[in-house]
Design goal:
It comes from Gossypium hirsutum (Upland cotton). InterPro entries: UreD. GO terms for molecular function: nickel cation binding; urease activator activity. Keywords: Chaperone. The protein has 296 residues and is mostly beta strands. It has a domain at 4-191. Helices cover 14% and strands 43% of the residues. The chain contains four helices and 18 strands. The strands form two sheets. Strands 3, 4, 5, 7, 8, 10, 11, 13, 16, 17 and 18 form an eleven-stranded mixed beta sheet that branches. A seven-stranded mixed beta sheet has the order 2-1-6-9-12-14-15, with no helix packed on it. A hairpin with a 3-residue loop joins strand 14 (156-165) and strand 15 (169-179). The termini are far apart. The relative contact order is 0.12.
Length: 296
């Protein structure tokens, strides 16, 4: 049976981006504050949260966003999305579909997903754009409640992000899949990294942000290669019988889409705090468009 979908519609009302329709179904709830940041900035912020502070086995969340022509909308969360243990083979799932109109900007900047012991979680995000739509997606997850020993202890994590242009033409297709049934368990394959993140920046409104992010990542990784890396334990042996050393924070950046209209940044880190700092710094150029700097 098809799940009942939530719905959010943003349109221009008296020249301002405004939520004209908002519907959500348990366990999802939307909060739309009257004002976030500068009142002269045309941007509407939407906070998403789940009742009880998390998602449990069998929860299915589906929501559609429509961002009208010329509008700016931000979707964020109040805290990390916690996914609790699975019963049998049940999988918690979230599906987000969004249409971004002409000259519109949609910014998806949640806190990370955190999967607890034995959890099974799947999310899919589909974005449909036109030639002058702009889009930012931050998609990231942490190893779990590792202070209690739950380090990469979940059963399944799957996250798919897809961008389609007019005529259903694929612009970006990406899936991250971690599953305990593979030959190498998740904790072993992740070594000492606790956070994996992807930042996607697309569209004509964001060219200045793309240029700055590419330059920042290039400079950051150049510095990493010059500074001795943090020792993260004996992950492998070299011919000289020394331990392999991995940097505590790594990032890569590449262009995608027609005429390089998009940039995707991938990050791995040993701490969540380092990723928050990275996101805040890289997206600081969004403040004039959003009224407040993301992750501030």
């Amino acid at each position: 049976m098809e799940m009942e979908k939530g719905k959010v519609v943003v349109e221009k009302v008296r020249g301002k981006s405004t939520v004209i329709r908002s519907f959500s179904k348990y366990p999802l709830k939307f909060i739309i504050p009257r004002k976030v940041g500068s009142s002269i900035t045309d941007a509407v912020w939407i906070y998403s949260l789940t009742y009880g502070g998390g998602i449990v086995s069998g929860d299915s969340i589906s929501v559609e966003f429509t961002i009208g022509d010329g509008c700016t909308a931000v979707l964020t969360t109040q805290s990390s999305t916690k996914v609790y243990k699975s019963l049998g083979s049940k999988c918690s799932e979230q599906v987000l579909e969004a249409r971004i109109g002409s000259g519109a900007l949609f910014v998806v900047i949640p806190d990370p997903v955190t999967c607890f012991s034995t959890a099974r979680y799947s999310q899919k995000q589909v974005f449909r754009v036109v030639s002058d739509s702009s889009l930012i997606i931050v998609d990231w997850f942490t190893s779990g409640h590792h202070e209690s020993g739950e380090k990469w202890d979940f059963e399944l994590y799957r996250s798919s992000n897809c961008i389609f242009a007019e005529g259903n033409q694929p612009v970006f297709l990406d899936t991250v899949l971690l599953e305990q049934s593979s030959p190498v368990d998740i904790a072993e394959s992740m070594h000492e990294y606790q956070v994996i993140a992807m930042v996607l920046i697309y569209g004509p409104k964001l060219k200045h942000v793309q240029d700055q992010v590419q330059e920042n990542v290039k400079r950051l990784m150049s510095q990493q290669l010059q500074i001795p890396s943090t020792r993260l334990g004996c992950c492998a042996k070299t011919n000289s019988d020394n331990c392999l050393v991995r940097p505590a924070f790594i990032a890569s950046c590449s262009a995608f889409g027609p005429k390089g209209m998009g940039v995707v940044v991938r990050v791995a880190s040993t701490t969540t705090e380092a990723v928050y700092r990275f996101l805040h710094h890289q997206l600081a150029g969004m403040e004039p468009l959003l009224g407040v700097s993301p992750y501030s």
